[in-house]
Amino acid sequence: MIKLIAADLDGTLVDRQGHIDEVEIEALRRARDLGVQVVIATGRMPTIIDHFLDRLDVRPEDPVVGAQGGVIARRDGRILRVLTIPRDVAEQGAAIAREFGAVPVFYTPNDIVMERVAFSPEQDVFWLGKGLRYDPDALSHLDDDLVKILAVHTDPGAVPELLAAFRQALGDRADVVRSHHWFVEAVNKEANKGAAIAWIAQQMGVDREEVLAIGDADNDVSMLRWAGVGVAPGDAAPEARAAADWIAPPLGQHPVAAALARFLL
Question: Is-above-0.90 flag for pTM?
Fold first, then answer.
């Protein structure tokens, strides 16, 4: 019996226009009515996704996984767990990003700071959050409480090579994932969505076999593998589809609702 649902945002619930279909919202609402805990697990910071959490009826006491598992917080802002990266990981990651023509973005529990504009100020805010600010010398103005470094490349074709460079240089000190078409990021070696969902499940007394996870990207693989039931949309990344127990319809055809109809509702 499923007692906890872990759902990714971008590419799973949220389309490229930032829209969440009402069918998906209603399916999650019905799951909650059955007593199932719904946990949003995203690469974004929990503090800058209120508009999505409002749409999804996330309650103040509900846990939210952010920064690929680097941060677990309640919707009301109470921090439950933070895993940080060493400053040298951020420094080296930023140097690699610049070398490849990507833009470094630094995250702390309270700040999102980008060295320069990547797409446009409006698009940067759309993808990274309303708290985003620009600082060409960002890293020198931030303390050591760094949650992750993100590299944004406006050419998706360049991202695989950027990802490989990040993994070669940082893979023994950080968990490196491609989290979107344009994004490569490095977080704490122990921070991933699977570990975060496992931590939440343990706190709630929920067994692994009672967890359903759904996600579409490389950064979702850990939770798809850990959960008792892992689901990927039909247009998910190959790694996510390979890690899943079941393939749902693609984004736009209600993959979350389909998964819940098959395994819960």
Answer: no
